[in-house]
Amino acid sequence: MITTILENAIEALNNEDIVAIPTETVYGLAGNAFSENAIKKIYALKNRPDNNPLIVHIKSVEYLNEVAIDIPPIAYKLASSFWPGPLTLILQKNKNVPDIVTSGKATVAVRIPNHHLTNNLLNNLDFPLAAPSANPFGSISPTNANHVFNYFKNEINFILDGGECSAGIESTIIGFADNQPILYRHGAVSIEDLEIVTNGVKIIEHTNQEIVAPGMFAKHYAPRTNTFLTNQISELIKIFPNKKIGLLLLKKTIENKSILHQEILSEKGNLSEAAKNLYAALHRLDNLNLEIIIAEKMPNIGIGISINDRLTRATKK
Ligand code: TXA
Ligand code: MG
């Protein structure tokens, strides 16, 4: 059931049940991070491989010590600049956090989300919330309560309705090797903005071949419809004559009578607005029974890099 009543969510979570929660990035499937029972339910609902750890959502920076240890100074610096907000930090795990949350890893992913309902919820619980995105493994992330309902129907008792997510793509994930920040996933905070806070310390991209984050799987965030990514839209359309085609474009529609539907992400070409609208546009396109979706590559700067990352994975064959 879709609800805005916080008490429903509090009661369910206290009973080790799962509640879908709004955040500024995407909706999450939340459970008590200290309860193995609750965490097992999350993995089962999502059909998520159990080698993919979850993000732990906490209420305050002071609470960080309950879930992490040996926190490097640069992590505190980033936390104080971006929390509450779409930045996840990978830190050494406190033993309070069950191994199932971190898939047996010695590290734990943590963030303070920035959505009034969920922050309010966290303040009314005496445990943090483990929450992956509220979509079946590999599919398009949800940015409103209806997206979540369409995936899980009544398999979840409560979906807390916080409206449309304001950032619209997942958090940026940063880990540390000593004091060196390492990027695990592009996301709603741009590298440029992070590097302003690290004071010239460059963020290094994680290059290990081992897949450490499902967001790093080659294919992810994928519509069911066959989807392509290009910066030459008109040329690609010609390759599919007589097909039912929909377009995902940054600023403006194109003149072509054979196109059935066109989604514009931001008329102004604003990349943050484009990120906010990205998943909802993909959900709409995917529900139109098209044969082909063609997405336009975004300018590869700022949040455009994160959008291109999602579209690249969404279109992997
Ligand atoms: O914006 C977000 O981060 C959303 C909202 C709900 O907070 N959550 C989200 O969760 O995107 P999920 O589970 O879809 O993605 C979490 C990512 C995964 O790629 C996971 O592998 C990675 O975080 N992760 C979690 N713990 C990790 C760890 N200890 N080391 C490396 N990566 C980790
Ligand atoms: Mg996800």
Largest sheet: 12 strands, mixed
> Radius of gyration, rounded?
19 Å
Query: Which structural class do the helices and strands define?
Result: alpha/beta
| Distinct ligand kinds | threonylcarbamoyladenylate, magnesium ion
N-to-C SSE string, H for helix and E for strand: EHEEHEHEHEEHEHEEEHEEHEEHEH
Mean pLDDT: 95
| Through-space gap between termini | 35 Å
Task: Give the helix level as a range of percent.
Answer: 25-40%
Share of residues in strands: 15-25%
Oligomeric nature of the chains: single chain
Task: Provide a count of the helices.
Answer: 10
Name the poorly predicted regions: none
Index terms:
317 residues, alpha/beta, 12-stranded mixed sheet, 4-stranded parallel sheet, 10 helices, 29% helix, globular, binds threonylcarbamoyladenylate, binds magnesium ion
Describe this protein's structure.
- By secondary structure, the protein is of the alpha/beta class.
- It has helices spanning 6-14, 36-46, 64-67, 73-82, 116-123, 145-152, 191-197, 233-239, 271-286, 303-314; strands at 2-3, 19-21, 28-32, 55-57, 68-69, 87-93, 107-111, 129-130, 158-160, 172-177, 180-185, 204-205, 226-230, 245-249, 259-264, 292-296.
- The strands form 2 sheets. Strands 1, 2, 3, 4, 5, 6, 7, 8, 9, 10, 11 and 12 form a 12-stranded mixed β-sheet that branches. Strands 13-16-14-15 form a 4-stranded parallel β-sheet, with helices on both faces.
- Strand 10 and strand 11 form a beta hairpin.
- Helix 9 packs parallel to helix 10 (303-314).
- The radius of gyration is 19 Å and the shape is globular.
- The model has no long low-confidence stretch (mean pLDDT 95).
- Magnesium ion (MG) is lined by residues 132-133, 141.
- Threonylcarbamoyladenylate binds next to strand 6, strand 7 and strand 11.
